[in-house]
Amino acid sequence: MSFSALTDGWTLHHAGGDVPESFAAIPARPIPATVPGVVHTDLLAAGLIPDPYVDDNEALLAWIGHNDWAYETTFVWTPDGESVHDLVAEGLDTVALVTLNGAEIARTRNQHRTYRWPVDGILREGENRLRVEFASPIAYAREREAVLGERPHSYVHPFNAIRKSACNFGWDWGPALVTSGIWRRIGIDSWSGCRLATVRPQTGVGGDPRRLRLEVELQREVAGDITVRAEVAGAVLEAVVAGEATTAVLEAVIPDAEVWWPRGYGAPALSSLVVTAGADRWEKRIGFRAVEIDTTPDDDGTPFVVRLNGRDVYVRGANWIPEDTFFPRVTRERLAERFRDATDAGMNLLRVWGGGIYESDDFYDLADENGILVWQDFLLACAAYSEEAELWDEFAAEARDNVTRLASHASLVVWNGGNENIWGWVDWKWRPQLRGATWGDGYYQDLFPSIVAELAPATPYSPGSPYGFSRYVHPNDPAHGTTHIWDVWNQVDYDVYRDYRPRFVSEFGFQGPAAWSTLFSVVHDEPADPYGPLMLVHQKAVDGNGKLERGLGAHIAAPATIDDWHWATQLNQARAVASGIAHFRSLHPLNQGAIVWQLNDCWPVISWAAVDSHGIRKPLWHALRAVYADRFASLQPREGAVVLALHNDSDDAWSGTVVLRRVTLDGVERARVERSVHVAARSAALVEVPETLSATGDPARGVLVADLPGGERAFWFFDEDPALSLDPDPVSVSVRAVDGGYEATAVARAVAKDVTLLVDRVHAAARVDRALVTLLPGESAVFRIEAPEGLDADAFGRRPVLRSANDLVAVAQPALG
Q: Distance between CA 397 and CA 163 in Å, rounded?
């Protein structure tokens, strides 16, 4: 039994279509290729195209997606003693013709599937020639749309007519760099006698986390008895597959298995499971856990409660998009960095969004290891989908393939039918366009739930996001199930978050630019301008910069320079999202979680991400770390008064004395009250703030401060920044070199709001451990900076690196534009 990956000797060939004159050299010769890879990355490596992410190269290179391409290699094969040889392709992007030694092996039309084809009789001793020809995915999608019928979809290209990653055709945060290529492994799998075709371990069967149900499918050459043996956590299970049978089910309670928990609730314990059949062996680490989603109607509507091993889990999550436009460039190391971003921010769930891909095994392994729950969408997003046989059969095949592949992961706790499609049918004026045509409901209500019930019955299923879990409520009703909140950002001020009482928010967010060094590594307008033509290439949202500026509202004064625009919009993004989460947490237990849009970026861009594509944590990330803390306090408006909202999402009670003070912006205490508080584990409480503290005759010069046992703190400013009498120069900063970088100490002379060091402006590799620090007069904060030696240390302590909210309101100036 062996798998021989075919990675060497590949060449890329132009196979059809119009090539711009400036790229006329490309069709003239074979181009060295990397497999796994895609056309763009091979052309880039050969120096034949410029970096697609820089300036307006996206448009310059749009022709690539309209052309046909071919990958070809020759390899030497020697008989290996095995009797069966299969060609296995784990990912072909997308419309492919596969030939071996001139013989047609298959035609494929689905990026999201693994294919296996027998090649005995075609594979020959000595040299073999493998060729994979890719037709233009854009041309194919348009051709199939013409046959299947036009259906509503977002953006330009009919991605809903082809089984390819939707966002690869362009999205409101991503470029339209339409790829072709062998994007995952391809090789020869050799075996004899029998092989383990599929192994599906499911834990939590019947609600018992230690009950394991192991379903095995064999592929065999001849009839006879085959013993399937499984070992895990000290237990041994066996079954005999007799005669010509090909399936076995082994089920038992594994008494010594450690239970897997998400982060914050216990250890993500994993146990090695080894399955053998004949000479074949399958091994994987699995977690024992039981999961359910409680959507039982109650007096407030319909909850959405994630429950692990009998315990409710408050979700502190983020949506996940592909980590790079060119998927083969995403390594395990890069994914591990993003998981560190998630865990360091206090997150416990990532939602793999339906416009992207079923992620690599590395992604789900990292989720298992880090105790990060995974919400997995089926790959349909923001469109109506035909249910004709050619698409139905592909959806069925890819669903069976990926549910089987991912069923063993303890972290995967919900399968979701798709993104916003049910909402689209109800609200986005699709029905007049469809005129009774199918639009995808059969996938969400029939195909996907039946496949999950068959192949992963211990994992819950949701028909869509948003979804109200009844056909008789609006799919985006905040009182029922999951909701997406997008009027904030698109239309209204972020204060409107407080008008919502959502049971669970599975999408919401606010834009902000990537770090300065990231953004201006690819944007070269002269002079730099938010509305410069090259900047707008990297702002994909409709009227995105207009929404950014309108979103400042009364909260932040209109910026007058590009430096202030960049800082103001980053700061406003952080504040907007943090205000939403703070409000949602103040509603606990009515609200059971939020999944912010989005954790990561796929290229340098102005977007909703918390971490940009160069791995720099934006101010939003630091805000998320604060509002996703186990113990969180915020001051909230309630019916004309102010309350202190406390959410204790930990296993220990939160008790002690809270000190409430009203102080002036130069540090004079005007009033003080102390209150005893007790917040039980995994619960919330509201503490009334006396009017002596919450009322002031001079809102421009005061702030309400709540200091809590454990060091948590909350602020309530009585007016918006432009109306506050903020000191324009509130801190002094001293910087010294230390091992591994620098240490900056900021000391406040007056109230300093949201002190932040944009350290990448000194060096693109610099990173800082904290941001958005608000200090009272006399207080100090230490910022630890990882950066190369030999830099101008003092630069970390002055503008444009040193920023605060104070310096945005210091001087009234005309706004940009």
A: 11
The pair of three-digit structure tokens given for residue 580, joined into one six-digit string: 């939403």
Q: 446 in helix, strand or coil? A: helix
Q: Side chain identity at 77, as an amino acid letter? A: W
* CA dihedral sign of residues 754, 614, 524, 57: negative
Strand order in the sheet with 280-286: 235-241, 226-232, 271-277, 280-286
Three-state secondary structure call for residue 362: helix
Q: Are 96 and 105 in contact (CB under 8 A)?
A: no
Can you give the three-state secondary structure of 619-668, one letter per residue? HHHHHHHHHCCCEEEEEEEECCEEEEEEEECCCCCEEEEEEEEEEECCCC
d(CA 418, CA 482): 13
Here the tokens at position 611 are 């971490």
- The per-residue pLDDT for 813 is 45
Q: Residue for token digits 């998009």?
A: 321
Cα 303 from chain centroid (whole Å) = 23
Relative orientation angle of helices 448-455 and 389-406, to the nearest 10 degrees: 30
In the predicted structure, residue 1 carries a pLDDT above the cut 90:
no
What's the token pair of residue 77?
């094969």
Measured between alpha carbons, how far is 70 from 182 in angstroms, rounded to an integer? 10
Quote the CA–CA distance of 600 and 608 in Å, as a whole number.
Answer: 8
- Tell me the pLDDT tens digit for each residue of 498-539: 999 999 999 999 999 999 999 999 999 999 999 999 999 999
Pinpoint the alpha helices (H) of 101-149. 137-148
CB count within 10 Å of CB 369 equals 15
What b/e readout covers 474-508, taking b as 16+ CB neighbours within 10 angstroms?
Answer: ebbbbbbbbbbbeebbeeeebbebbebebbbbbbb
User: 589: cis peptide before it, omega within 30°?
Assistant: yes
Instruction: Copy the structure tokens of residue 693.
Output: 């503290």
d(Cα 255, Cα 232) in Å, to the nearest integer? 11
Please report which residue ranges of 329-485 form alpha helices under DSSP H: 332-344, 361-370, 389-406, 421-427, 430-434, 441-442, 448-455
3-state secondary structure of 113: coil
State both tokens at 295: 């959507």
| Mean pLDDT, rounded, of the chain | 96
SS3 state of residue 230: strand
| Contact assessment for residue 658 and residue 706, using Cβ atoms and an 8 Å cutoff | yes
Question: How many CA atoms does the CB half-sphere of 619 hold within 13 Å?
Answer: 29
Neighbouring CB atoms inside 10 A of 174's CB total: 24
Q: Quick one: how far is CA 325 from the chain centroid? A: 13
* 118 closest CA partner among 43, 188, 14: 188
* CA atoms of 769 and 245, how far apart (whole Å): 59
CA pair distance 463, 420, nearest whole angstrom: 10
Is the CB of residue 209 less than 8 Å from the CB of residue 262?
A: no
Which two structure tokens, joined as six digits, stand for 796? 């970390």
- Check if the beta carbon of residue 203 is closer than 8 Å to that of residue 211: yes
Q: Closest Cα partner for 210 from 280, 289, 272?
A: 289
Residue 298 CB contacts under 8 Å (≥ 6 apart), including other chains = none
- What's the CA gap between 30 and 411, in Å, rounded? 44
* Residue 119 · residue 83 · CB < 8 Å: no
Please give the torsion angle defined by the CA atoms of residues 534, 540, 545 and 546, in that order, rounded to the nearest 10 degrees. Answer: 130
Buried b (16+ CB within 10 A) or exposed e, 107-121: ebbbbbbbbeeebee
Q: List pLDDT tens digits, range 457-480.
A: 999 999 999 999 998 999 999 999
Q: Where does the pLDDT of residue 256 fall: very low under 50, low under 70, confident under 90, or very high at 90 and above?
A: very high
Strand ranges inside 665-730, DSSP E: 669-679, 683-688, 702-707, 713-717
Do 793 and 759 touch, CB atoms closer than 8 A?
Answer: no
Indicate whether 639 pLDDT > 80.
yes
